């Protein structure tokens, strides 16, 4: 654990303790000591406010009184930083604007990025996407084409707020304009140029982009630095890792993406996910083992994919350390047709 991690845990402890005790005299002393250490580490007032915003969501605080108590802690810290009440009010206004921005971004996602799951003969689909906070950095899209093909993508935007919501909107509209005849490698190349040209330079996107032909059960896909997917072979009861080489979207304009082909036999399943699954922290602080996820899929393999992703999500929720929440997305395609 770094000294920054120690500072974060100490500040979290200040908030939790004050909510429990309400002891203002004790808070004054501990806040003074904390402020001195933060100043010694060159922590800026803006960084303290940003930390406070993160912790308010992560603890989490469940009612008005707890939020008010947390602001009392922040006020005491800011006073020790040498700030006046006027400065403190300005910071509160900044936090309020931040919350308003999150509300706008969440509304954008709800209205512009909502994806329906089509019903297709001999194909079963399941998807779940749960944000850690108001605005999700995860995104999935499913497009059914008239020629018995299905385009799909799972993405993770490395960024936050309205810029991230706009980036995801661009990706959605870019995908919606893609024909089923366009191979995933070419589609990713075009989306990469779109992101590189129009999105903030410090914002990048990982994406798993696939094309499934449900008439002959063939699959081809490309990956832009995304988590490898798993193909579960039902008859052999084995998992195959599917990965494609390629940079994340938005780094370099002229990027080529590897294209990989595979095939789904009857009852085989393709499982795609974001790092909210693979990097989930358990109660003891350790990362989840992906073998645990595979075992969950085995246990529920005869169920509908929507029931499977729900089953996995509920299991992960029970296992997850609530201090390390992240956006979480899972998508499953199951072939029900005999070749």
UniProtKB/TrEMBL annotation:
Gene3D superfamilies: KaiA/RbsU domain (1.10.1240.30), PPM-type phosphatase domain (3.60.40.10). PANTHER family: PHOSPHOSERINE PHOSPHATASE RSBU (PTHR43156:SF15), STAGE II SPORULATION PROTEIN E-RELATED (PTHR43156). This is Phosphoserine phosphatase RsbU. GO terms for molecular function: phosphatase activity. It comes from Jeotgalicoccus coquinae. It comes from the Bacteria. Residues 124-335 form the PPM-type phosphatase domain. Keywords: Hydrolase. It is an enzyme of class 3 (hydrolase). SMART domains: PP2C_SIG (SM00331). InterPro entries: Bact_Sigma-Reg, KaiA/RbsU_helical_domain_sf, PPM-type-like_dom_sf, PPM-type_phosphatase-like_dom, PSer_Pase_RsbU_N. Transmembrane segments: none annotated.
């Amino acid at each position: 654990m770094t000294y920054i991690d120690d500072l974060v845990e100490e500040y979290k402890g200040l908030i939790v303790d004050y909510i429990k005790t309400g002891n203002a005299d004790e808070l004054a002393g501990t806040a003074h000591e904390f402020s001195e250490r933060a100043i010694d580490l060159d922590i800026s007032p803006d960084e303290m406010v940003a930390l406070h915003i993160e912790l308010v969501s992560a603890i989490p605080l469940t009612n008005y009184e707890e939020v008010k108590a947390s602001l009392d802690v922040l006020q005491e810290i800011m006073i020790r930083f040498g700030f006046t009440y006027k400065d403190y009010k300005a910071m509160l206004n900044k936090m309020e604007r931040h919350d308003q921005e999150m509300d706008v971004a969440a509304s954008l996602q709800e209205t512009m990025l909502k994806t329906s799951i089509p019903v297709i003969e001999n194909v079963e689909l399941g998807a779940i996407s749960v944000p850690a906070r108001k605005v999700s950095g995860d995104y999935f899209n499913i497009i059914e084409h008239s020629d018995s093909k299905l385009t799909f993508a799972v993405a993770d935007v490395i960024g936050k707020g309205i810029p991230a919501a706009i980036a995801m909107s661009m990706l959605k509209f870019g995908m919606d304009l893609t024909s089923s005849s366009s191979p995933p490698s070419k589609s990713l190349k075009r989306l990469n140029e779109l992101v590189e040209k129009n999105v903030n330079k410090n914002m990048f996107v990982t994406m798993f982009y696939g094309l499934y032909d449900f008439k002959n059960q063939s699959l081809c896909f490309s990956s832009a630095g995304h988590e490898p997917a798993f193909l579960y072979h039902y008859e052999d009861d084995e998992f195959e890792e599917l990965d494609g080489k390629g940079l994340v979207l938005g780094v370099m304009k002229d990027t080529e993406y590897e294209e990989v082909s595979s095939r789904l036999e009857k009852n085989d399943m393709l499982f795609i996910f974001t790092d909210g699954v693979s990097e989930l922290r358990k109660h003891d602080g350790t990362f989840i083992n992906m073998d645990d996820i595979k075992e969950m899929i085995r246990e529920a393999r005869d169920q509908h994919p929507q029931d499977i992703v729900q089953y996995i999500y509920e299991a992960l929720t029970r296992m997850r350390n609530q201090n390390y929440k992240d956006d979480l997305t899972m998508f499953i395609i199951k072939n029900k047709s005999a070749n």
